[in-house]
Amino acid sequence: MTKKKYFFTVLILGCLTALSPFSIDMYLPGFPDIAKSLNTTTAQVALSLSSYFIGLAGGQLLYGPLLDRFGRKPPLYIGLAVYIAASAGCFMCTDIDTLIILRFIQAVGGCAAGVASMTMVRDLFPVEENAKVFALLILVLGASPMVAPTAGGYITAAFNWHLIFVVLGIMGILLIPAVIWLPDTYKPNPNYSLKPVPIISAFWEVAKTPQFFTYALAGAFSFMGLFVYVAGSPMVFMELFKVDKKVYGWIFAGLSIGFIGASQVNNVLLKKFTSEQIARTALTVQVISSVIFFIGSIYGVFGLAGTIGMIFIMLCCVGTTNPNASALSLAPFANNAGTASSLLGALQLGLGSFATMLVSYFHSPTTLPMAGIMAASAGIALIVLLVGRRFVKHKIEASGVVVAGH
């Protein structure tokens, strides 16, 4: 693959990966306006975020088998069409219940882009390059938290929140010709059964692999911190600290530097350390910082600047852990990479949707719910990693080296 083709391939895969995060981040500054427009509360509006995550999680399980049966592109085209139609529905929405349902449908369509891009990484690049490519995808993905909430804040302030979904629909349309340009990375497999029993069996074969469940679960619980931040930040910053929607967008963009920067520093660290060493260290720091944030929240010692600082540290840890945990969990798979990628995504998004519902349930005018859930999820992630790695007898490193008896 030439450098030019490599660049555009990674860029397109990154844009596909960023579609759903853009769909999440862009409408966050509009929460108060959406609540006012639809005669509801911001906590109820947050449920439309939860329904989106639930749709993403379910869609992961749907598209995995479809990508392995029909190839990568046909399910992707269908998913983008569903996403575009649901975006149009959200634009015309007049009540919160309909918005919650349409966001679910939008997620089911949009998640095809994320699953397909993750699977194509495994198709297109050698296993020893996967962690590097995942980190590059996060670099493109970083445009979402840097651009989306800021743009959403200005769009909402200048026009109204409905227009945000017009922009998202146009993004979906523009991705179609980009997908056409991508190479066909996997031939359809007519022998791959779409009957429930074989599909469940295929998922089970992946799930019971010690290397998969150890690093996928650890990475998913670590990633919960990001979902908690996304769901809780409108209430914390705009309700607790009284910042306006434009300032909120800039804060969100600034905090994303931690997540993006850490993912790129990871590429440098990979030259000297293994993926597991990096993930274990990052998780340890995430636990320590989250506990400090939680204790500080109990005693109310963190103001706006302190809260931003603690969240920044947490996002740095997640940005370092995620590409390594993803690469390690997918490393053992080749023929059923689509199934493994979809199960990995379902775990991350399933736990993420649960986290967002917890944030809505424990809604309060403090940082305590956010900090508490962050600390709990980070602690569970580290425990899963330390205990689970003992069951991995023959670990395939992200470098492609099999370490016996590890």
Write the layout of secondary structure elements.
Layout: H1 3-25, H2 31-37, H3 42-70, H4 73-91, H5 96-124, H6 130-141, H7 143-158, H8 162-181, H9 196-207, H10 210-240, H11 245-269, H12 275-298, H13 304-330, H14 337-361, H15 368-388, E1 394-396, E2 402-404
Describe this entry's structure for a reader.
Helix content is 79%, strand content 1%. Helix 12 (275-298) packs antiparallel against helix 15. The chain is built from 15 helices and two strands. With 406 residues, it is mainly α. The protein is globular and about 55 Å long. The protein has one domain (9-181, 193-404): MFS general substrate transporter like domains (Growth Hormone, Chain: A, Up-down Bundle). Strand 1 (394-396) and strand 2 form a beta hairpin. The protein has a two-stranded antiparallel ribbon.
Key words describing this protein structure:
disordered C terminus, 406 residues, Growth Hormone, Chain: A, mainly alpha, 2 strands
**Roughly how many Å apart are the termini?**
34 Å
Summarize the biggest pleated sheet: 2 strands, antiparallel
Mean pLDDT: 85
Q: Give the number of domains.
A: 1
SS elements, strand count: 2
For the record, the CATH class is: Mainly Alpha
InterPro entries: Efflux_drug-R_Bcr/CmlA, MFS, MFS_dom, MFS_trans_sf
Subcellular location: Cell membrane
Keywords: Cell membrane, Membrane, Transmembrane, Transmembrane helix, Transport
Family: Belongs to the major facilitator superfamily. Bcr/CmlA family.
